[in-house]
Amino acid sequence: MSTVQTQSYRRQRDHFEPSDQDPQEQRRLRGLLEQIDYAAFISNREVIGQTLSRVDVATFQKLAVLTANARARWAAEALRLSESGSAVTPDQTARLTAARTAYEELAEVYEALRRMVERGYLTLR
Predict the structure, then answer these.
(1) Computed from CA positions of residues 80, 86, 91, 97, in that sequence, does the dihedral angle turn out positive or negative?
(2) 4: which strand partners?
(3) Which of 1, 29, 46, 71 stands the most exposed, by the fewest C-beta atoms within 10 Å?
(4) Helix 90-118 to helix 57-84 angle, to the nearest 10 degrees?
(5) Is the model's pTM score more than 0.85?
(6) In this predicted model, what pLDDT tens digit does every residue of 77-117 receive, in sequence order?
């Protein structure tokens, strides 16, 4: 089983690949799987294209700035905590966790949108 690691989680790919079938059955199965993949592609392109029809390069830039600000807030919070020299309280840990979560979520959205463009699901204006 192969694993794809993104910023904050791992996705497992567990596609079954039979090895002991006859060649004709393997071709038939590959054909069916191509039909399934194509149906998923068309569905993604139509749904994502309709839902995110207003995305353009400026939208990506705004998201990149928002993500960079979230990363900077997370790092600044950690540095602020380290300057005190005392043990971190549960409230401080919660704030730090919230800052990290915000950054990671924004980074994941950025990567997901980029993949949507790369795969042809989303056409930029």
Answers:
(1) positive
(2) 11
(3) 1
(4) 160
(5) no
(6) 999 999 988 999 999 999 999 999 999 999 999 999 999 99
Radius of gyration for the alpha carbons in the chain, expressed in angstroms and rounded: 21
Residue found by looking up tokens 């600044």 in the block: 76
pLDDT tens, 32-41? 999 999 999 9
Both tokens assigned to 92: 């401080």
Burial grade of 117 (CB within 10 A; 0-12, 13-18, 19 or more): middle
| CB distance 113 to 95 below 8 Å | no
Residues 7-33 pLDDT 10s: 555 666 666 666 677 889 889 999 999
Task: Tell me the two tokens of residue 10.
Answer: 């791992």
Give the number of other Cβ atoms within 10 Å of residue 110's Cβ: 16
Task: Please choose, from the candidates 76, 79, 74, 59, the residue with its C-alpha nearest in 3D space to the C-alpha of residue 105.
Answer: 74
Tokens of 15: 């596609």
pLDDT of 83 reads 94
